[in-house]
Amino acid sequence: MVVYHGSNVPVENPIIMRSERKLDFGEGFYTTYNREQAVRWSQRVADREKTSSRIITEYEFNLIDAEKDNTILRFDEPDYKWLDFVCSNRLGKEIIDHYDIIIGPVANDSVYAVILFYAKCLR
User: Which helix (H) or strand (E) holds 114?
Assistant: First the structure.
């Protein structure tokens, strides 16, 4: 299957870099199955970097092969386990388990207020 990464630069060889940003699934290289989501993300990155450059990089991803050599955490829907995981990452809490690949929905603007509220309750 094809997955997409939206940015303001092409990313031929993804690498994981340390970041202070608190993201849904923690530090990592984010891709999506949804091309339109990658297009929207590339626009956000371009706006943040104050550039007009929007690049969608495509990758071929084989989940069956990935499952052979990687520890994978999969969220099929945004349920309570997903919410706990996302909020823990957004709060910068250390996740005990290590995963090579995390698959699941990312929070969009419509659920962001719920995540902020829930994260305050976890503190």
Answer: helix 109-122
- Per the CB < 8 A criterion, the answer to whether 63 and 1 are in contact is yes
Q: Residue 21: which residues within 8 A CB-CB, separation 6 or more?
A: none
Q: 87 pairs with which residues across the strands? A: none
Q: Is 56 helix (H, G, I), strand (E, B) or coil?
A: strand
Annotated domain spans of the chain: 2-122
Whole-number percent of the chain with pLDDT over 70: 84
Quick: pLDDT tens for 5-41: 999 999 999 988 777 778 888 888 999 999 999 999 9
Q: What is the DSSP string of 89-112?
A: HHTTPPPSS--SEEESPPP-HHHH
Q: What is the dihedral of CA 118, 108, 97, 92, to 10 degrees?
A: -60
